[in-house]
Amino acid sequence: MFKALVLKKQDDANASVSVEDLNISDLPEGDVLVKVSFSTLNYKDALAITSSSPIIKNYPMVPGIDFAGEVEESNNDSFKTGDKVILNGFGVGEKHWGGMAQKARVKGSWLVKLPEQISLKQAMAIGTAGYTAMLCVIALEKNGMHPEKGEVLVTGATGGVGSIAITLLNNLGYQVCASSGRSEYHDYIKSLGAQRIINRSELSEKGRPLGKEIWAGAIDSVGSHTLANICASTKYGGIIAACGLAQGFDFPATVMPFILRGVTLVGVDSVYHSIEGRTEAWKRLTDDLNFEHLEKMIKTITFRDVEQTARNMLENKTHGRIVLDVNSY
Fold it and tell me: Where are the domains of the chain?
């Protein structure tokens, strides 16, 4: 028997949330059984747990798009008992039972071996948010970004992607401008390496097709008018990595930044990214992430805290990274 957070739904009612004792035989199919140590609470998890968006494709569901743990059984040649592994995405916690449980059975092709320099808890402090932030940095670099080009904007600065993007960029020598609507966290944002902070209201309303050239690049997890305004204010030849939709999935922009300034907009998907790309990102995280900064971001919760913390996250009452210790309840 093991404990798991289980979402159940009947008809049009919101999903119920409960901690249940399950058997190994209850787990879905997969060729690797993992003893989970830590999961995380991401924005997508919060949407699923609160029934705020149709994230879950079938019920009952164990949420959690991330986990880190140790292989307990394996029928996959790439993994053996005792290997420490990470999972991010691949529909886990949406279509396939996820990481908010003490056990998980998944396809080995979804797993990445944990780098030796990173602990299981640190891996989940990074989680999908930090892994996505690293993918965004890599996307900027592969499109020609380097520190000498100028300031880089990071939106959603108090969130998981934003927090880790700031410390990554700072550690790589970039000048970072952070966008946030939460003045009470300005000291926190600056402690991660942001040299300048603007209020998110400067970007969140409908703007002009082209504005003053300000940023050489940007990492955006917000979307909607914010992303449109970033494009309009990016310098000639600038690069923007877009990875989220906290404000909305619409994109009310024009082609002018792209055809008049040669701005590049790169979409970053973390859910189905290749194993090769994932491995590169986690290797880069071991080299480029300031782990002292990471410690400032972490709040550890237990199963009993998950539902309320999910609500707090959607009400913009959390910051940094929320780590779930699945062995505490």
Answer: 2-114+295-325, 128-267
What phi and psi, each to the nearest 5 degrees, are found at residue 148?
Answer: -70, -15
134 token code pair = 């690293």
b/e sequence 9-38, b meaning 16+ C-beta within 10 Å: eeeeeebebeeeebeeebbeebbbbbebbb
- In this prediction, residue 278 has a pLDDT band, given cuts at 50, 70 and 90, of very high
> Distance between CA atoms of 292 and 148, rounded to whole angstroms?
25
141 membership: H or E segment, kind and range:
helix 120-142
Q: Is the pTM of this model over 0.70?
A: yes
- Per the DSSP assignment, residues forming a β-bridge with 3 are 21
CB atoms within 10 A of CB 177: 21
The separation between CA 141 and the C-alpha centre of its own chain, rounded to angstroms, equals 19
Convert the pLDDT of each residue in 107-127 to its tens digit: 999 999 999 999 999 999 999
The one-letter amino acid at 65: I
Tokens of 222: 């917000």
Residue pair 247/316 in contact by the 8 Å Cβ criterion: no
pLDDT confidence bin for 261, thresholds 50/70/90: very high
Contact 267, 116 (CB under 8 A): no
Asked whether the predicted pLDDT for residue 46 surpasses 80, the reply is yes
Class of domain 2-114+295-325: alpha beta
At the top level of CATH, which class does the domain 128-267 belong to? alpha beta
